[in-house]
């Protein structure tokens, strides 16, 4: 079987693309890379990420979206986790989130990793994780 190299991007359906683009840019420091219309004409996506396209987050608008918040207990997305280089980065992110009034969990140190949980404007659970 061929090998998977990595996850290239995630795509999230959001209730307000403009609000989410602003939030992901301010909170996570992602750059706007492109706009892409859906092939069926039923919406569009704004793609944010690193300028070299090595990691991307697509924020999608669909006309059939009922504007309900995300709930990880339903079938579909549970959460998205972004890796950080080291445990100290989690402390820096926690301080950044506090300055921006982003609700967050305490950093959870486990055997071999640590994680910081927070949520986007649509209640999508996001995590930052470090080894060690």
Strand content: 35-45%
**Strand line-up in the sheet with most strands:** 1-4-3-2
For this structure, the CATH topology of the largest domain is 2,3-Dihydroxybiphenyl 1,2-Dioxygenase, domain 1
Structural class determined from secondary elements: alpha/beta
Radius of gyration: 16 Å
Overall helicity: 10-25%
Could you list the spans in which at least 5 consecutive residues all have pLDDT below 50? none
CATH superfamily of the largest domain, called what?
Answer: 2,3-Dihydroxybiphenyl 1,2-Dioxygenase, domain 1
Shape descriptor reads globular
Oligomer kind: single chain
Could you say what the CATH architecture of the largest domain is? Roll
Listing every helix as H and every strand as E from the N terminus to the C terminus, the arrangement reads EHEEEEHEEE
Give the termini separation: 31 Å
Number of helices: 2
- How can the largest sheet be summarized? 4 strands, mixed
CATH classification class of the largest domain = Alpha Beta
Describe what is shown at a glance.
The model has no long low-confidence stretch (mean pLDDT 94). The protein has helices spanning 17-28, 87-99; strands at 9-13, 31-37, 43-49, 56-62, 80-83, 108-110, 113-119, 125-131.
Write the layout of secondary structure elements.
Blueprint: E1 9-13, H1 17-28, E2 31-37, E3 43-49, E4 56-62, E5 80-83, H2 87-99, E6 108-110, E7 113-119, E8 125-131
Parallel strand pairs: 1-4, 5-8
Antiparallel strand pairs: 2-3, 3-4, 6-7, 7-8
Q: How would you portray this structure in words?
A:
The chain folds into 2 domains: 8-65, 2,3-Dihydroxybiphenyl 1,2-Dioxygenase, domain 1 (Roll), CATH 3.10.180.10; 78-132, Roll (2,3-Dihydroxybiphenyl 1,2-Dioxygenase, domain 1). The model has no long low-confidence stretch (mean pLDDT 94). It is of the alpha/beta class and 132 residues long. It is built from 2 helices and 8 strands. A hairpin with a 2-residue loop joins strand 6 and strand 7.
């Amino acid at each position: 079987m061929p090998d998977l190299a990595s996850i290239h991007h995630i795509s999230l359906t959001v209730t307000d693309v403009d609000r989410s683009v602003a939030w992901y840019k301010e909170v996570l420091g992602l750059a706007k890379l492109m706009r892409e219309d859906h092939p069926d004409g039923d919406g569009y996506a704004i793609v944010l990420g690193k300028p070299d396209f090595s990691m991307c987050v697509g924020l999608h608008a669909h006309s059939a979206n009922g504007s309900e918040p995300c709930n990880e207990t339903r079938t579909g997305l549970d959460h998205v986790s972004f890796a950080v280089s080291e445990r100290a980065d989690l402390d820096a992110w926690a301080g950044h989130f506090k300055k921006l009034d982003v609700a967050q969990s305490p950093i959870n140190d486990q055997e071999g990793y640590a994680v910081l949980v927070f949520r986007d404007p649509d209640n999508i659970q996001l995590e930052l994780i470090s080894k060690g």
